Structures are given as C-alpha cells and as structure tokens.
Automatic annotation (TrEMBL):
GO terms for molecular function: ATP binding; helicase activity; hydrolase activity; zinc ion binding. Residues 612-775 form the Helicase ATP-binding domain. Residues 51-90 form the SWIM-type domain. The keyword Nucleotide-binding applies. Gene3D superfamilies: P-loop containing nucleotide triphosphate hydrolases, Tandem AAA-ATPase domain. Residues 885-1047 form the Helicase C-terminal domain. It comes from Rossellomorea vietnamensis. Residues 1000-1052 form the HTH TFE/IIEalpha-type domain. SUPFAM superfamilies: P-loop containing nucleoside triphosphate hydrolases. This is DEAD/DEAH box helicase. Residues 1009-1036 form a coiled coil. It comes from the Bacteria. Keywords: ATP-binding, Coiled coil, Helicase, Hydrolase, Metal-binding, Nucleotide-binding, Zinc, Zinc-finger.
C-alpha cells in the first residue's frame, strides 16, 4: 500500500495499548497480508479466531480502516488487529527502503569496509587465529569459549572488535597495529567465521542474562548451545583453529564418527563384581552441545548417551573411585540392560570367568511365514545357542544357565509384529486382511529382515509381484513427425484389459494392484512413482496412455535428466538414434555449403552440424566456443545452408549483437559469403524506419542490442528464419529490457553465441536459455531447485563448448581477428572537423610535385587523425572525454583475465601507452612497460620476468618492441593502433608467436570504424608497400603512393 507509515502515526491512530498488542501479533507472525495495492490493503490477523482487516486510502489521502472483531463502541481509537496490520505495512516499507538503499549502495564508488577480499582488491589479508578452550560454567556445565589473534596479536576485547568489524570501523588491536577495514580484510573462510561470531555476541548476551552468575571476560566469547550448531561446521572448515585443553594444544577442529576411546571392563574379584572405566578422565563432556571432546577430536553423541556419560563422570570424580561395584543380585540386569547401553559409549569387555557362568550368546531370531486359505500365518522364535524361546508362550527358560537375553532386540522385533495388526493365536500370529497383508509384506518384512531370519513359503514369496514384472514405458520417435515422441505403457505378460485396470488403480492412487495371478503389485515403488511423475508432467489421461501417447519433443526434455539410468523407460532404436545425434552431431548427414567447405575447419564443421541437428528437431542452443574459435563463421555457414528458404519465404535471418560488433558481422558476411545480402540496421530513427520499410530483398538483418530495445515494436511483428544472439551474456539478467526484447523475437530457430554464458551465477544460464530455448527449463524458481549435476546433464546436448586447448591440433599457430569500433560522439565531431581542415589546407592541388613538397605535412595531418581514433587527449589540450577504443581495450583485458590469458599491447604512441597504464593502475592490474627509452639490459630483465609469469600484461611501444624480444609466454597480442607497414605488425605478433610458444596466439587489431584506420587496412591488402614509398622516397618505383591512394585514405 502506497502510504508512509511510522510508529508515531500508528500510536496516534490506535493508542499505545493497541500498538503494543498489535506489535505482539506481528512478532508472532500472526499477520497475513492477502491483498496489497496502492490504495487498499486486506489482511488476516490470526488469534483464537481469524479477524479480517481492511485498510484503504481515499484520493484526498485519508485512511479508513475496518476490522471484523467486536470492538467496543465507546472505544474511539483503532483496535489491536488494525495496529498489527499497520505495523506489518510499516515493516514491509522499511524492508523495501533497505532493499533500495542496499541495491543503490552496490554502485557507490567506495571500497568495501569489511568482509573477505574480492577480485582486483588491494587490501591485505590478515592472519587470524581462533583459539577454542573448554569453559566450565558456575552450574558445572562445559561450553567452548573462543578468543582471537590478529596478525599474531591477541584481541583484548573480542566483543568490541566484532562490533567494529560489523560497523566497518577501525580497531586498535595493539600499540603497533590498528585494524582498518579499508586497508585490511579477511580470507573468505575466516570472514564466514567472523560473520557468525558477530551473531554469537547477541546469543551470548541472552545466555548470560539467563545465567546471571556468569562473569564476562573481555578476551573470551562464550559459545552458547544455540550458536554452536552454526559455528561448528565453519570452524571445522578453517585451518586457523587451535583447541587449548588444559594447556595441551591441538590444531584444527576434527569431528569423529568413531566410537569413543573409552573402555568398560566387567570382572569378578573373589566373589565381588566390578565395572572398571578407562579413558573417561581425559574427556570433557559438553552436555549442552551433545558432544564429547577427547584428544583433539569432538565426538557427537545422542543426548541420552551424553547425559549418562556426564553423570558417570561426575559420580566417579565425586567418589574418587576408579571402578563401580555391581551387587550379585543385579548382575542379570547389568548384562541385559546396562552393558547394552554402555556399548554405545565405548568398548565393553566381560571377563572369561563371567562368560562361563553367564550365557551371553547372541540372539538369533527366526520368523516363519505361510499362507493358508487366504490367511497369512506367522511364527516367531528367539534362539540362544540350543535354547529356543517362543515369545508368545509362557514357558520357563531351561535351567543350568544364567541366560543373558538381548531384551532390546527382542522388544524391537515384538514391537514390529504388534504394529502389523496380527491377531495372536496359541503360539503364533494370524492376519486375514489383504491390505494389512500387503503393508506387512511391503513395509515390515524389510525392517524385520535386519533383525531376524525370514523363512517364507512359496505362496508368501509370490504374494508380492517381483520387481522384474514392473511396468515400463516404451519411447520412440513418432514415425510421421520427427520432432514428436510416442510413449506407450507396457508390462510383460499382462493383457491389454488388465493394463487399463492397472492404470485406473494408478489414477486412483492406490497402494497396490492385485494381478489376475493373485500377486500384489506395489504401486509405491520408485519405478511406479517415476511413471506417476511422467503422467503428471505430461498431463496425460491414464487410459489413453495404454493405447499410446504422443508429445512434442520439447515437452519431454526432463527425460534427459535420467533417461540413461532409468529402469522405467525402454528406449527404442529411433529414440536412441535421436539421442546419439544430439550428443554426436556428426551422426546426421548435413551438407556443408560448397563455398565454405574448404574454409571451415573440422571442429567448425562439427559446430555447424550441431546447429543443424538442433534446428532439425526444433531446438535452440548456445554455441559457447572460446574466444577466437570462429563462432561467427559457423553461424554464417548455418545461414548459408538455409538461404533458399530465407528467400522463398521472405523471412530473413537476424543477428543481434553489441553495437561494437555490428560492422564486424557485416565484414565477415562480405568476406566469406558475398552472395548473402546483409544489412546493418542503424542510424537515426528516420533512417532505421526507411530500412525497415524496404527489407524484402534482405537476407540478413544485423542490429545492436540498444537499437533492438528501441525498435522492438517493429521487430516483434516480423517473422525471422533464424536469430543469433551474439555475446548473449548481454541479457544474463532476465528482468532487463534487453532480455525482454530478445524474448519477443519470433524466429523459427534461435541460437545464442557466448564464450562466457556464466559469469557470476548459474541463474544467468537460465536467462539465456529462457530466450533461445524456453522449453528446456521451467520457471526460475523451479530451476533454482535443480542440482548443478541435473542442470549440466540437461543442457549437455544444447550447449557446444570447445576451448582452444581442445582443438589445438587443428588450429593455426596464429589466429588474427579485427575488432571494428564505433567512435564516441565527441570523437566523431573532432575527427570530422580535423579531416575537413586537413583536406582544405593541404589537398587543393594534389599532384606528384606538391606531394613531394607536402609529404611531411600530410603525414603529420594523418597522424593527428589516427591519434583522435586512439584518444583525442594525445594532442587536443584539455580534452575531458573518453575513447571508444580504450573502452573496448579494457573490456578485452577483463575477458582475457577471466580466461587466464596473458596479453601484449602494442601502440605506436607512447603517450597512449601512458594513458592505458594509468587506467590499469587505477584498476589494480599490474603490468610491465617498455619503450625506446628502456635500456637494453632492462629490456632483457623485463622479458624474463614476464615469461616467468610475474605479471600478465605488457605495454610495448610498437617500434621499440617490434624486434629483439622473446615473449613466448604471452598468448594474446593486441595491436591498439594501425601501423602503415603490415610487416611491423607481423613482427610485433611474432614476439609471442615464436619458438617456445605452447599456446595458440590470438592477434587482435583494434580499428576505428569509418576512419583512416579502416582505409589503411584496406590499402594494406592492395598495396603492402604503399607507406614505404611515402616515407622513403629515395626508392622510386611504379608502386609509389599515388594521388588516388591519398585521396582514398582521406576521402572518408
């Protein structure tokens, strides 16, 4: 409800008494808000009966309330139930405000004040040590206390320190060390413990209030029982824990599931019987924790056993004795009852002389089962060696022995028989009820098998249908529809009429079904439950299921989670072939387009076939190949393969990508498939609308994510043959406009391209599949309940991921790519103005003579244009704007860091390298720097340190570092600006691509789109010696730079 509520307003409206009672209702979670809109709210307050409260706000802002409770007419203020609802609304608003503040705080440009070290942080991780020590309370109970050491200095006031950490404040640990959250932080494991200890401070305060005699020690924090269960697993996972037990130190907190190192020895001494206890004196019993500490290990115990052990320890300590006398008259009770319970605590030894006198042989129980005249008969025997006891007969035990019976086990067996509703007869049991008989055979017999031997006749063994007769579901691909599956219920040896009856029993949710043979088929087995789950998910009619059920394949995707391990589904050949084709795309025959067959590498052909296979069955998927493996060319191959259908149906392909990649895609289409008419949809709104009106002859439309969002009303009305979402992590958040817009695209086939489909959480993967293949998973809530193993198994056929190492044998030693980058608006203005001035001033009369005279001026002007492309501040005084190329470089470096790649960055301009260096330093990225002023010796040292892995980024001047450097440990080379001579760029790349290199070298050229850099790249292909002729005019050749060449460079 959109109304600001405060404690003062509620108190004025309801009074202090109603407010306090309403607050009590709220704290007991007795308020349930059923409806909540801007102008009204409805709620139920649960008490001895439910009271319904309505709160509304008029257009003038007045609040009206109503409650179904019998409020006194003389009471003018609102009742306690209205107060409770108003308090709930206030708390909800407070939570929303906290959420908003917390969310916005995430984006504040300030350092984290506490917590563990995050990526790219420069804070120092502190050395923290936790010391646990048993602490005996005034009541005689033991608790653990804990104290801290920070950087080998004891924390004198642990509560004050934890409060300061919580609040992000400094704390003076010692004279020479102050904890400052802006300078120091904890390791991740330590931070988890510290966070829990902050909560322990409150729990300890409550504990001390309940036990007022406990004295507070500043350096020690008591761990109450309510806190131990949460703190123990965190301490167990920490390597910085020490346990101090009476001065004896133990490293780490170890939890043992073994029997306690405790020994009970029962012996006679000239007619006197004693129980000796060894090992108890070394143990500390933490009754509050239900655990025992001994020799550096903690032994969890049931509370009853822990209580007994604590009392035994107290008895022995108070008496000063080391053994306990057992009266002769109580020996039988001791052996039958006490010794059995002592075995749960430690090893129990009974001396040989007592073993001879008392018969302590183990119990062998036997249960005999038979069926006679539709009745189940049972007989039970307890056997101790040659003594057989019928528990239902009151016969005396044969004399000559003092028999020690296992009364605990006997009681357990008799209790199970009692729970089975048998009627007792003379010496046996009888059961005459089919449902009770089923429950006994299905539920009780497995339990009894653990305690007794079961001897059943054939009639009893056949009463439950064996598991091998369990029903199955046959799965095959529907013959006339390749993307549909057909399911049919099947059970060996069962006629079709009985199958219908069995399915009816399933629909009625019966526990079992009686077959015509008389056997009872359990409908509660894991296999039957799997069939039930399938029928629920498919929403199929049980009766139709007997005849055969056809479902679209995309509705049956959860079968992939367990189809291989399932004992229910019988996979027929057609479905097995389908699964094989999904997991091994090469198994289906899809022709490679002729114009690309010689270009595509083997792994790229496999990726193409994988996409064709998914499209064949109507599925979508994610091509998640590593950067540089050719996701673009594989996608182009797919579009080429469906080009006839695109043109026949006037249904173009759609490429959606980041703004910086739109023209990269266009260039790739023109390079590899010039016959495909591809168009980039950009420009202002009027220009885009013009292109949208006339796209009928267009084969491929390329659009950026921002423009897709703006023009989604047009795009959602179009029908596309296929859509490729490049860099699909752009919509990893499903609530963004980008994700919603992508979801609205109507395309026959949908694919995502992303080298990093998961960056922070597995929910990002759901978001991408929600766009390209929504049938794969249900809602995000259901998805979050799936295990990672289940998610991995389900996506396996629908994600293709290859990293460079996987296909290294096929890759060339060096892979080159070009990143085309759109200048920022302020850069474009500067560039256009300077280009116009350069043309006007120097190119009025361009011929061979003026070229020779103006060579230096022309080169200087072109250099200025190139500097604007790099960063205008290289020569424009006071430029405060940014650089598109620098932004792209930093993005590439971030991706490279995540991929573990090592980078060389080359630029002709040392001032540009300085700018890059400042950005890296500000982000906490260490780097090496080398230019023409670096001494020769230092160059060698820098290269050696880089090859040793000291830092992952090296900034190098193109001319100074182009030769003489061996940087074989790098695997990525970035050419920040284009150089006239392509040979210089090749030499730069060869700093990494040389002997000793073990990885594929990725060479990335950054080129400003629509500028002199783009023209230079084109002319590099046409005239590789063009710039040499301009710079060195002493060699006069026919390939000298012509008037037309310079005009082409500058006429952009």
């Amino acid at each position: 409800m959109n109304i600001k509520m405060t404690t003062k307003i509620i108190t004025e409206k309801c009074g202090s008494v109603s407010f306090k009672r309403g607050e009590a209702y709220f704290k007991k979670n007795a308020v349930e808000i059923t409806e909540n809109h801007d102008a009204a709210c409805k709620a139920i307050v649960k008490s001895s009966e439910d009271f319904h409260v309505t709160i509304s706000r008029t257009s003038s802002g007045e609040i009206h309330t109503a409650c179904t409770c019998p409020k006194l007419s003389s009471f003018t203020l609102e009742c306690q139930h209205v107060a409770a609802v108003l308090i709930a609304l206030k708390e909800r608003q407070s939570g929303e405000d906290n959420l908003s503040e917390g969310f916005l705080t995430l984006f504040e440009n300030k350092k984290k004040s506490s917590g563990h070290k995050r990526h790219f942080e420069t804070r120092n991780v502190m050395d923290v040590e936790f010391t646990l020590k048993p602490f005996r309370t005034t009541e005689g109970q033991y608790l653990f206390s804990i104290k801290l050491m920070i950087n080998r200095r004891p924390v004198s006031d642990i509560r004050s320190f934890l409060k300061r950490v919580r609040d992000g404040q400094t704390y003076q640990v010692s004279r020479d060390f102050m904890y400052d959250p802006h300078v120091y932080c904890f390791s991740r494991e330590t931070n988890d413990v510290i966070t829990q200890l902050i909560r322990v401070v409150h729990d300890e305060k409550v504990y001390r209030e309940e036990h007022s005699q406990e004295q507070e020690l500043k350096e020690l924090l008591l761990i109450p029982p309510t806190s131990w269960q949460y703190l123990q697993p965190l301490l167990q996972g920490s390597e910085d824990v020490i346990i101090n037990d009476a001065g004896q130190l133990f490293n780490g907190l170890a939890i043992s599931e073994n029997l306690l190192p405790l020994q009970f020895t029962f012996d006679d001494d000239e007619g006197n019987y004693y129980l000796k206890v060894r090992g108890l004196q070394w143990m500390v019993v933490f009754l509050s924790y239900s655990a025992v500490f001994c020799e550096g290990e903690i032994y969890p115990l049931p509370l009853e056993d822990c209580t007994r052990l604590a009392e035994i320890k107290v008895m022995l300590e108070r008496s000063g004795a080391s053994k306990i006398r057992i009266p002769p008259s109580r020996i039988g009770y001791f052996l039958e009852k006490v010794a059995v319970d002592l075995k749960k605590l430690g090893i129990v030894e009974i001396s040989g002389s007592l073993r001879k006198k008392y018969m302590t042989t183990p119990l062998v129980a036997k249960l005999y089962l038979d069926r006679v005249k539709n009745r189940l008969l049972a007989g039970l025997e307890f056997q101790y060696e040659n003594i057989v006891i019928n528990p239902l007969e009151a016969k005396a035990v044969p004399t000559g022995h003092m028999l020690v019976r296992d009364t605990e086990k006997e009681k357990e067996i008799l209790s199970l028989m009692e729970d089975s509703s048998f009627a007792k007869t003379e010496g046996g049991y009888i059961l005459h009820n089919e449902e009770l008989e089923y429950e006994f055979l299905y539920y009780m017999v497995p339990k009894l098998k653990k305690l007794a031997g079961i001897y059943a006749t054939t009639a009893v063994r056949n009463r439950l249908a064996p598991r091998k007769t369990a029903p199955k579901i046959r799965v095959k691909v529907k013959r006339d529809r390749m993307n549909w599956l057909e399911f049919k219920f099947d059970m060996d040896g069962i006629p079709e009429r009985e199958v219908h009856e069995l399915l009816s029993a399933l629909q009625e949710q019966r526990k079992y079904y009686r077959l015509q043979s008389g056997s009872l088929l359990s409908l509660e087995t894991k296999e039957i439950q799997e069939i039930q789950r399938f029928l629920r998910n498919s929403q199929a009619d049980h009766i139709d299921f007997a005849k055969g059920l056809a479902l679209p394949m995309d509705q049956c995707l959860d079968l992939l989670d367990h189809i291989d391990s399932s004992e229910v589904f019988r996979i027929e050949k057609s479905f097995r072939e389908l699964l094989a084709s999904l997991r091994q795309p090469g198994s289906l025959s899809f022709e490679i387009p002729d114009n690309l067959a010689a270009i595509l590498r083997d792994y790229q052909k496999e990726g193409y076939r994988w996409m064709k296979t998914l499209a064949h069955y109507g599925f979508g998927g994610i091509l998640a190949d590593d950067m540089g493996l050719g996701k673009t060319i594989q996608s182009i191959a797919f579009i080429q393969s469906i080009l006839p259908a695109i043109r026949e149906h006037d249904s173009p392909a759609l490429i959606v990508c980041p703004s910086s990649l739109t023209y990269n895609w266009l260039a790739e289409f023109r390079k590899f498939t010039p016959s495909i008419h591809a168009v980039v949809l950009d420009g202002n709104k009027k220009q885009r609308q013009a292109l949208q009106k006339d796209f009928r002859d267009t084969d491929v439309i390329i659009i950026s994510y921002p423009l897709l969002r703006r023009d989604i009303q047009w795009f959602e009305k179009q029908a596309f043959s296929v859509v490729f979402f490049d860099e699909a992590q752009n919509f990893k958040n499903p609530v963004t406009q980008t994700a919603r817009s992508a979801k609205k695209i109507d395309a026959a086939h949908r694919f995502a391209l992303s080298g990093t489909p998961i960056e922070n959480s597995i929910e990002e993967l759901w978001s991408i599949y929600h766009v390209v293949f929504p049938q794969l998973f249900q809602g995000l809530k259901d998805y979050s309940q799936l295990t990672r193993k289940t998610i991995a198994r389900r996506i396996e056929p629908f994600m293709l991921r290859r990293v460079k190492e996987d296909v290294l044998a096929e890759l060339p030693a060096k892979m080159e790519s070009r990143e085309s980058i759109e200048l920022l608006p302020e850069q474009k203005k500067l560039y256009a103005a300077y280009l116009a001035k350069l043309k006007h001033d120097t190119l009025k009369h361009l011929d061979k003579d003026t070229l020779r005279k103006n060579k230096i001026k022309i080169l200087a002007g072109i250099t200025r244009l190139r500097q604007i492309c790099c960063h205008p501040s290289l020569f424009v005084e006071g430029y405060k704007g940014d650089s598109a190329k620098l932004q792209q470089l930093l993005s590439i470096l971030e991706d490279s860091k995540e991929s573990g790649r090592r980078v060389l960055i080359f630029s002709q301009f040392t001032r540009m390298l300085d700018l890059i260096g400042r950005e890296l330093a500000g982000s906490g990225v260490p780097f090496f720097y080398l230019d023409g002023n670096t001494p020769s010796q230092e160059r060698i040292q820098l290269c050696s340190r880089y090859n040793d892995g000291e830092r992952d980024v090296f900034l190098i001047s193109l001319k100074a570092g182009g030769t003489g450097l061996n940087l074989h440990s790098a695997d990525t080379v970035i050419l920040y600006d284009t150089w006239w001579n392509p040979a210089v760029e090749e030499q730069a790349a060869d700093r990494a691509h040389r002997m000793g290199q073990k990885n594929t070298v990725q060479v990335i050229k950054l080129v400003a789109r629509g500028t002199i850099e783009e023209k230079m790249n084109e002319l590099q292909e046409k005239k590789r010696h063009m710039v040499e002729e301009l710079i060195d005019s002493q060699e006069k050749k026919e390939t000298a730079l012509t008037e037309e060449d310079i005009k082409e460079i500058l006429n952009i």
